[in-house]
Amino acid sequence: IFRFERIVTMKILEAVAKTIIFTGLIVGYAYAIEYFLAWYSHNIVEIEAFRWRAVGDYSVEFWIMVVCNSVVPLLFFFRKIRTSIPWLLGISILINVGMWYERFVIIIGSVAHDFIPHAWGLYRPSAIEFGIMIGSFSLFFLFFLLFVKHLPSISMTEMKETLDHGESHGD
Questions:
Q1: Which domain holds residue 19?
Q2: Distance CA 170, CA 164 (A)
């Protein structure tokens, strides 16, 4: 659409995919070590909090988070997937979904499963909270689209490297 093929080459996209593999492995390791440390500490409150994440009311969201952030990036180990634009786009979107669910699990899980057992239950957002969320997304997309329209999305240095300079001055 934007005709950036000369600037953003497949070599660059493949390097980004390899970086995503690395960061996906780091995130997966962080999830695993978090559970290991809860188990190793023998702190029953921490163990139960992590167990509740995996099998509690919001377990579906938790497992979507784990799969999207830790398992899906491993598909980039295959060169055919790593060098395909549709696969790159699809996997990147799934990783963004996983990162959104990570915030969801952290925030909503803390609200729904507090330290006081009588306060436990399903979290139901109010109309005001939905309005704030929709407004936040709208404001973000407004500023993002304004940025893309009025400022260059590729740095000038990158553009200068791809220009044909022709004959040098003074010859």
A1: 10-121
A2: 17
Q: Are residues 70 and 111 in the same domain?
A: yes
How many Cβ atoms are within 10 Å of 21's Cβ, its own excluded?
15
Q: Buried b vs exposed e over 53-65: b needs ≥16 C-beta within 10 Å? A: beebbbeebbbbb
Q: Which residues contact 123 (CB under 8 A, 6 or more apart)?
A: 108, 111, 112
- How much is the pLDDT for 88? 96
Do 129 and 46 fall into the same domain?
Answer: no
Which tokens belong to 76? 């980039």
pTM above 0.85, yes or no: no
Q: Is residue 105 one of the residues assigned to a domain?
A: yes
Residue 167: pLDDT band with limits 50, 70, 90:
very low
pLDDT digits 0-9 by tens, 101-138: 999 999 888 888 777 777 777 888 889 999 999 999 99
